Amino acid sequence: MPLPWRERVRQLGPGLVLAAAGIGAGDVVVASVTGIRFGTTLLWAVVCTAALKFVLTEALARWQLATGETVVRAWATRLPRWVAAGFAVYLVFWTFMVGASLSSACGLAGASLFPGLPVPVWGAIHAAVAALLVAANRYAVFQKMMKALIALMALCVLGCAVLAAPAWGDVLRGLFVPQVPANGGGAQVLALLGGIGGSLTVICYGYWMRAAGWRGAEKLAEVRGDVRLAYVFTGLFGISLVVIAAGVHAAAASGPRIALEIADRLAGVGGPAARWIFLVGFWGTVFTAMLGVWQGVPQVFVDLITAWRGVPMGSAPAAERRISLAALGFLAFPPLVLLWFKQPVAVVVAFSIVGAFFMPFLSVTLLYLNNRRAWVGALANGWRGNVALALCLAVFAVVCGSEVAAAWAR
Fold first, then answer.
1. Residue 143 vs residues 17, 61, 90, 319, 404: alpha-carbon distances, Å
2. CA-CA distances (angstroms) from residue 243 to 38, 41, 183, 240, 275?
3. Domain count across the chain
4. pLDDT tens, 110-161?
5. Which domain holds residue 40?
6. CATH number, position 350
7. Burial, 125: exposed, middle or buried (Cβ in 10 Å; 0-12, 13-18, 19+)?
8. Quick check: pTM over 0.85?
C-alpha cells in the first residue's frame, strides 16, 4: 500500500542531508561564474553533473546494501594496504582544507548579514557552534535541523531565481540544447562537472543510510529514490544559481565574495529585501554544508581507523566516540588559522591537485568492487551499471587532468 505523501516527506532524510552537505561555497562560486560568463547556455552541464554524481552514489549505496559495509571499510579490508594508506593521507589534508574553506565561507556570510564582527571571528563562531550541535545531538535531531535549513536555503535561492530569471525560453534552451561556447566554454563545463555536488562528502551517504536503518537488498528501491531526490535537489539548486547570476549581470568577484556581488545586483532588481533573501540563502547553504561535513567526515575517520585495526564497526563505542570527537575537533578548529593568515598559494595548489583525484579513484574502485559477484551477489553491476561507472571514470579523469593543469599553472 503506497504511503501517504506526508509520511513520505517524514521519511526523507539521508538524501537531503547528502545534497545539503555537498552544496557549499564552491558550488555557489562555480555556478555563479558560469551564469555571469555564459548566461544559461551551460545549464545542461549542471544536469549532467547531477546525473553522474547519482551514478556514483547509487553504486556505493548498492555496495553497502549488498555487503553491510561501507566503501571506506572495503578500501581498508578488501584492497591492497596502500589504498587505505593513500586515502588516509588524502583525508587528513582534505579535512584541514575543507574546514578552512567552510569556516571562511560561513564567516563571509555572517559578516555580510551582521557586519559588526570580522570574517575570521564569524568563521570561528560558526565552526564552534556547528561542532557543538553535531557533538550534542543524535542523527535524528541532526536530520531535523538539516531539513529546516534545507527548506530555508531552497526557498531563498529558488525564489531569487524566479525574481531574477532571464527569458524562460533561454533557460529551456540551455537545459535541453547542449552547447559549448567558445572562449572558455569547455573549461567551464569541466569546472561544473568537478564543482557541483561535492566530492568526498558523497561517501558520507553510507553513514547516513546506516543511521536511518537502511540495510539489505530489499531497501534498494527506497535508497535509489532517496539518492534520486538528492541529486534532483542538487541540480535544481545549481540551475537556480546559474539563472540568478545570468539574470542580474553581476561582475565576477573572487571566490565566495561573488555571492555578495550578486546580492547587491539583486537589490537593483527586487529591492533591498531581495538582497537580504539571497544573503540568507547563501548563509543557509554554507552553514548547512558545514553541519553536514562536521557530522559525516568524523565517521569516515572512525571507519577507516577501526578497519585498519581490524575492529568491527560498533564493537567499541567508547573508542569510536573518542576518535569521532578528535576528528571533529581537527575539522573545526586547527583550520581556523588559515582565516587569519590566509591560505598560502602552495597549500591551495596542493589541495587542488590532490582533491582532483578523488572522483576518478571512487569511480574505479566501485567498478572493481561492484563487479565481484562473490561479494555483492545479485546487486552486482549489470552492463548498464558498468557503462555508467565507466562514463563517470572517463569524465572525472578528464576533469582531474584539467584541474591539475590549472592548479599547476597557478
1. 7, 19, 28, 24, 36
2. 10, 10, 20, 5, 16
3. 1
4. 999 998 899 899 999 999 999 999 999 888 889 889 988 999 998 999 889 8
5. 5-409
6. 1.20.1740.10
7. middle
8. yes
